[in-house]
## 1
Amino acid sequence: MPSWSERRLPIPPRASTRYRYTRRRWHVLFAIIDAVGAWLFALGRYLFGSRQLVPLDEVRSILLMQLDHLGDALFTTAMLPALRERFPHARLEVLAAPWNQAVFAAHEVDAIHVWATNRFQRGGNWRWPIELVAWAWKLRQKRFDLAIDVRGELPQAALIWLAGCRRRVGWSDGGGAFLLTDVLQHQPGVHELDARRELLRILDVSPNILGQIRPRWPINDRDRRAVQTTIDSPDDGAGPLVVVHVGAGTLAKRWTLAHLQELLGRLIVELNARVVLVGSADERAWADQITQGRVWPQVVDRVGQLTLGELAALCERAAVFVGADSGPAHLAAAVACPVVALFSGTNHVAQWRPVGSLVRVLKHEVACSPCHRQACPWADHPCMTGIRPEQVLAAVRELIVEPAVLEEPRAIPIRLAPLVSLGER
């Protein structure tokens, strides 16, 4: 049996740094597509002339495209106030997905278009290319002056080109740069919030505004009232309120059953904590395995019962949030709740960590990271089993007694806290 320092997944090295994809075949494919596409567009400009770009100061309609999941959408909300400031007379609309629609509905946008069958649908659906053409035709009627593809990939670039958007902003490292008018090259390891700052910078947003952008979640009184009974339950005990997200967006990011059970017990016994379990309806069965179908003292199970707004209101009142690298951790950080984020080996921490000075990231280093996989091929899931309950509990203790938590108001800090690396087994 090889040691962990020698044990690696069979992932081919990148062919170049031009594209962000892991596998060599995608680099080759998109290099061919971009070369042919650039040649055809150059020929078209030679034969028919170039279409004049709409000046930024004349932009009156904007399409912001974000089809990814919760965490990505929360980072994108940081762009909304800056776009409003830069284009005060423009109509701002969002092309979203069913799984992130509520994120944009909580913010001030003029319209939300929901594309249900797109390529980010978990489980896969091969109807999305047909849907892409249909959506391009639908959006073409809106005649957008400016379109922003936050993710940066060939299908999205094709969509906004087919939709006739006059100015198209996006990234070159996902393929399809020839379809864009304003192109950036993504730098590996750059945080997602800084990547969004770059998109705004190319649109001449003021540097003062760029320094202030951060994910936000406006909490309303209805959501606060909805979670009040959860917070004030007489059986909750007298200790700190700890919100624990039991699941994750993928199996590869999920913490282990035994570790979750041990952490819950230690939170109750050692901290006298009041614990609220949260998660999506899809994580209901996993939550039942954790509690073994029994009622735990000082533990309230709200898995599958809270809206995003109610989850934000709950995190606003919590002493600490504990969860995997997933959307709820970013939501908690957006309302300035102290966060303990458990990172698997799937992603780069520097790119995806929640934003805030009251965030502690725990990661167990393994040789096969980053793997970008949906499920771990190793039976013992080393990157997550290596994060021990006692290490999570120590991070929770630190955040509970942190002077900044006790003395400062809950304003979103911009500074990123240091990574706590747990080493290699």
Note: The mean pLDDT is 83.
## 2
Amino acid sequence: MAEDLQKLIERAHILLEALPYIRKFFKKTIVIKYGGHAMVDGALKESFAKDVVLMKYIGINPVIVHGGGPQIGSIMEKMGKKPKFIDGLRVTDEETMDIVEMVLGGKVNKEIVALINKHGGMAVGLTGKDGLLIKAKKLYLEKDAPQGQAPEIIDLGHVGKITEVDPNILNILNESMFIPVIAPIGFDEEGIPYNINADWVASEIASALSSERLVFMTDVDGILNEKGDLLSSISIKEAEELLKKGIIEGGMIPKVKAGISALKKGVEKVHIINGTVPHCIILELFTDKGIGTEIIS
């Protein structure tokens, strides 16, 4: 009996540790970039959905931006179309763009919506075209050329970069019990769709909403130093130095750059966390120690 009581007291301490953070984030917006293995593993998907629903019910406004690269590649191969990348960017011709819209805006987006709703939330799926949320234009890739020559300009097709985010539809949803779930697809003034890097979509949406936090879910613990040790907190200046030295590399580069951009536009803190840890969002945002890396101004 005494042992059971002690366990209950420990649970109470956990809730009390979270109280200052619940108070701080009450009625604030937190943008979460949902991606990596957490979108594939069944138990992690359930964990993510429960975290998001919990946040909404305690008065926080979670806004979800999701990726879906592996899912796009899988469908492309089933359709007999081989994915092609240049410098990590998917070459997106018209047929591929149709697949991107079908997979991201349809299959993946609605699966996330359904999962959140299953756990008591009221999620709404969006792309950039809904409410004129994400305006974009074609992104051209510049490759360095030998000295004295003009750089090579590569047309990646329907790959875009954001020109404007109109957060009105998100503000309306946030004022209610709805949870926005956003696929990283933008559109230009002529209605032409563009596939956009989800990290940058999350960054620009967090900036437009003046979010309290921007959280990137990855498959690693966070940002590591030269020795491979996890850095629990770093400044913009320190992050830029790690980028310059090549210590931050691979898929972490766009996340850190997008995070720095959001910080410079008014987001208070950026978190990079390991999405393979169950309930990673709660552990990072509502505990004193956290589990990942926070980038601060």
Note: The first strand starts at residue 29 and ends at 34.
## 3
Amino acid sequence: MIFGGTTEGRMAAEWCSSHNIHALYCVATETGFLSFSGIMTLVGRLDSDGIEALILRETPVLVIDATHPYAVEVKENIKTACDKTSTRRIRITREIGDTSGCQKFSGPDELIPWIAQREGIVFVTTGVKEAPLFTHIDGFAERIYFRMLPSVEGLKTCLELGYKPAHLILMWGPFSRDLNRAMFSAAGASILVTKESGAPGGFAEKISAARDLGMQIALLSRPKPPAGEAEGSLESTLALLEKYVCSAGLRECV
């Protein structure tokens, strides 16, 4: 059972498909739907009770948490459900890129006042879940450009919050350095707000483009995992998965 909606989740599902391992791929929205041989996709948001019920119904031998590094609530829900059902779990993490010269913030309580004290256009790439936060900035409709994944739900949310349609960019990334620079320049932005999303999120390209333009860069820091929580890269997770499926007799291994 793979909880994904990310590059790592897709690659884990693709690995399972290519190795004839049947898997259930769980994503929150339709944008994460996959179509691989031997892979079933379940779309919908689940709380810990829902995940626990799903595990009890499907009885997976292994759960892979490949959710986004900032998806704190769902990660905790997965952990709780696995602990309660005594199901083995692997959690994938991402390396953090070069953050030198960036202003880091542990949460919106620090970030929003910092932006409010500065002038200029702000280009936000944090994701639609954070859209309500920036409405607390005076003149946000004029100052904020918001880039997010293309979804009707996300667009509706931002319009209802009062964002200008012309300031909403719905595109599927990651984006090249040149394209980021073109977008930031077209918006006339002097501040970039983003997350430490790692290589799959195009982090390096965003930061490089902002530096090219002399922009200030504000980072919402990645949540720290709970004490004692083991994490591994995609590569190490797939290597561990290879050993696990062989030792468990899930397929023949050479």
Note: The mean pLDDT is 89.
